[in-house]
Amino acid sequence: MSALRLVVFDVDGTLVDSQRTILESMRRAFEAVGVTQPTREDVLGIVGLSLDVAMAELAPDAPRETHHALADAYKSAYVDLRAREGTKLSSPFFPGARDTLMSLAAREDLLLGVATGKSRRGLDKLIAGHGLEGVFVTEQVADFHPSKPHPAMLEAALAETGVQAQDAVMIGDTSFDMDMARAAGMRGIGVGWGYHDAARLSAADRIIERFDDLPAALDDIWRRDT
């Protein structure tokens, strides 16, 4: 019998399009703390990093206390927007994401997981809001690991599932995801609809442009191993 294989997904920019909510939450946070607003490009460039690391990138001249204040203000703004709009409006699935997830989850040879810069609370809200309970067998969040691209999240996912690195693939939209996969000894599939352009996904084993293309890309990667 073939070994179980693991497919780990990033969330923001890969499964769901939370761009509008992220940008507005950042705008509110920087306004509340009184720090110069970052550009849209800069904000989208840090999506996927843990908040403490992201704020240090966006406000490099500010002291650590200000970074903490920005992170707290961002969390409050994000929670407020999600509560007002609901998960399905604030973080809608990208086209084809839900159907592909359900198709992959139904396969007996695959396990699905998540590795995200979101908090535990944030991921729980998203899973509940989209009705994804039970889909992911391993869920790695920023609360308990160093920020991407450190491989700790993926190493924990491999340990929890008992899957070997060569039998696992990371799916993500940023260079942080692809670099994390490489550091963990896993392969990575970049997606063309997220927050980093193709030029920044050079560490990916391949890039797909539609969610519908993911099952075939996964099968092709593993077919080459046989």
Write the layout of secondary structure elements.
Elements: E1 5-9, H1 19-33, H2 40-45, H3 51-58, H4 64-85, H5 87-90, H6 97-105, E2 110-115, H7 120-130, E3 138-140, H8 152-161, E4 168-172, H9 175-183, E5 187-191, E6 206-208, H10 214-223
Parallel strand pairs: 1-2, 1-4, 2-3, 4-5, 5-6
Helix pairs in contact: 1-4, 3-4
Explain what this protein looks like in three dimensions.
It is a single chain. The protein is α/β, with parallel strands linked by helices and 226 residues long. The protein has helices spanning 19-33, 40-45, 51-58, 64-85, 87-90, 97-105, 120-130, 152-161, 175-183, 214-223; strands spanning 5-9, 110-115, 138-140, 168-172, 187-191, 206-208. A six-stranded parallel β-sheet has the order 3-2-1-4-5-6, sandwiched between helices. Strand 2, helix 7 (120-130) and strand 3 (138-140) form a beta-alpha-beta unit. The protein starts with a strand and ends with a helix. 45% of the residues are buried.
Features:
single chain; 226 residues; alpha/beta; 10 helices
As residue ranges, the low-confidence spans are none
- Fraction of helical residues: 40-55%
How would the global form be characterised? globular
Work out the helix count.
Answer: 10
The topology string of helices and strands comes to EHHHHHHEHEHEHEEH
Ends apart, CA distance between termini:
13 Å
Mean pLDDT: 93
Assign the structural class, choosing from mainly alpha, mainly beta, alpha/beta, alpha+beta, or little secondary structure. Answer: alpha/beta
Strand order within the widest beta sheet: 3-2-1-4-5-6
Radius of gyration: 17 Å
Total beta strands: 6
User: What fraction of residues sit in β-strands?
Assistant: 5-15%
Question: Biggest β-sheet: count, sense, barrel?
Answer: 6 strands, parallel
